[in-house]
Amino acid sequence: PNEINPELKDGELDYLLEHEDTFVDQSGGIFIWLYTVLVLIINTKWKRGKLIEGVLSRSMIGGVVERMAPVYLTVLKAATETDESGEVKEIVRMIVGLLLVTAGNKPLPISGLYAFLPPAMKEGSTLEEFARIVMRLNPVLKFTLVTKGYPNNTSTGDPVSTPHRYLVQAYHATFLEFSEKKDLRLEQVAG
Hints:
The structure is a single chain. By secondary structure, the protein is mainly α. It has 10 helices and 3 strands; from the N terminus they run ααααααβαααββα. The protein has helices at 12-18, 20-27, 31-43, 48-57, 64-80, 87-102, 110-115, 119-122, 127-136, 173-180, and strands spanning 108-109, 141-145, 166-170. A 3-stranded antiparallel beta sheet has the order 1-3-2. It starts with 11 loop residues before the first helix and ends in an 11-residue tail after the last helix.
């Protein structure tokens, strides 16, 4: 579920389908590259053409994490693109850090991640706003709806309106490895 998932404009789906081989070739056989890029493109509201061009022009040299780094940096930049104050970038940095710290344990709900934010970061913002920021990272995160313990195991709601019911974790281990590498971190994201 993703509230920022707009409909693809006329011709965009056709473009993706026409260039399917290009995306597959560029992925270098790394499925997570292809998945992440396609989710990023579909979930991006603006500048899709520029995004596609940039992703396809990147070199695929090095190990898996190095080859994923440009894609992950693009996801992080897209998540913070409209952030003029730098606050969203700091929250994204905190989210990534929390995911790294909790990666070896059970995933936390969005509301659990929010609970770890320092009081100064929570000031003037709500859990719902935080959940929207988490959703910007959808291409690299996995959301699991908790139904156990709810009447009839209902699956109503979305991560923004019911953040206590959605567990969050990195979609793939390479994102965590990328986040740990000093030369590839979020500091490279222009703020």
